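Example 3.2
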Amino acid sequence: MDGTDGTAGTGEYVDANGVVTFTAQVVAHKETNAASSLGFGLTLPVPAKTGKRVVFQLNLDGRDADNGVWTGEGLIYAGGDGKQIDRLRVTTGSNGAALSNIGHVYGDVEGATDAEIITVSGSYIRA
């Protein structure tokens, strides 16, 4: 998940008794646009069991950008082979039922003093 304009990605996971628990982060130290119009994404660390849809919690921490933390959903579809990028999505302000890909992070602009951090965490049944 390393970007060319100030993003760095990291993650940790535990695979035990058929369940994978993970946390992944994208840290934007600079204002950054995603590499494509599809937005930022991640891959599951271990393939998931097929036939199930799994939704993981996603948090956006603006680190003083707007004095708040925004939350949304990271939609990861089970059955990924670990090679496909699963796009990070959040609900839109105009329609709470609609989801939008995350294509831009502010990083150190718009009042952010450190960085903007996207965190996705959750558990799922392994393949």
